[in-house]
Amino acid sequence: MKINSPERQEFVKQLLTKYPNLGSLTLGRIAHKRRPEFFLSAENAYQSVRYFRGNHGKKLRKTGDKSLHRPNQPSGIAWSFPVSHAPDFSAFALDAARTLILSDIHIPFHDRAAVLAAVGEGKRRRLDAILLNGDVCDFFSLSRFDKNPSESSVKSELRLTRQFLGWLRQEFPKARIIYKLGNHDEWFDKYLARKAPELIGVDGVDLAHLLTAEINGLPEVPGIEWVLDQRKIVAGKLNIWHGHEIGKGSIAPPVNPARGLFMRTLDCGLMGHLHKASAHEETTSNGKLVSTWSTGCLCGLWPRYARVNKWGHGAAFLEQHSGGQFTLSPIRILRGRVL
Description:
Blueprint: H1 6-18, H2 24-34, H3 42-52, H4 58-61, E1 92-93, E2 98-102, H5 112-124, E3 129-133, H6 154-171, E4 176-180, H7 187-195, H8 207-212, E5 224-227, E6 233-235, E7 238-240, H9 257-265, E8 269-271, E9 278-283, E10 289-294, E11 313-320, E12 326-334, E13 337-338
Parallel strand pairs: 1-6, 2-3, 3-4, 4-5, 7-8, 8-10
Antiparallel strand pairs: 2-11, 6-7, 9-10, 11-12, 12-13
Helix pairs in contact: 2-3
């Protein structure tokens, strides 16, 4: 084979394409070792690499495949800054003027009278949006806790939660409906991760599809917006959390949930999760007023695992004003009636 054959040229070009950051001398040694029939010596291969890189003077830099050219530089690998795998935790912006916030419904263990009272209050105040702030579905059957299979099943929980979303859309055809996943809602994906990780990412095997898409003869529930991955919701100067994102042990111990939220975030905020209604307010040294709230729940108040508790029914109504200002009105519910 001729030493300047097209085969040799193609071989050198392939090396340059595969190893663009390797030094020319190193590539020359690799080329000679792999195809000694093409090169008299490693030096000969080195000069061939330099030729195709356009390092044999200005005249040769103007010819050949310029995509392989690179300026003269020190030998060795050119290090680049590593790509980040950190997830995006940007907030979900809620810009509706009047929003009804419902938390901890826990279908199928919801309290029908409490839910209807809260929704009725939102309708009376002419809401623009409904924020389902976590734990809409209980997913009792997928939890790791001891359970009686006769009490619930995945099929019935999905069916009833879908029925609730359909009813809500029917009642408020023009309102935004935003579904933020709470810790109970997340049990669906966690169960898949434990029991059937191969199904994660398969079309149709996700909570949003099962609860809203046209399936098994049931019509689509349109226009549901999803807040996943424990993302914070921002409504002007108010931060909204379900509560489990804050971290275990950081909310429950101090006085009440609202003060726990203040101690953890030091910013205006609202959360659910602990099924207790509370409020806290402090003024900083520079005169900034920081207020935090926790909403009550809309589920049954005496589950088997917590017969004695301090839970209470409740929701919240948020009005946003210009400049990020807001008015937050807790909705207290007792025996199915708004106080």
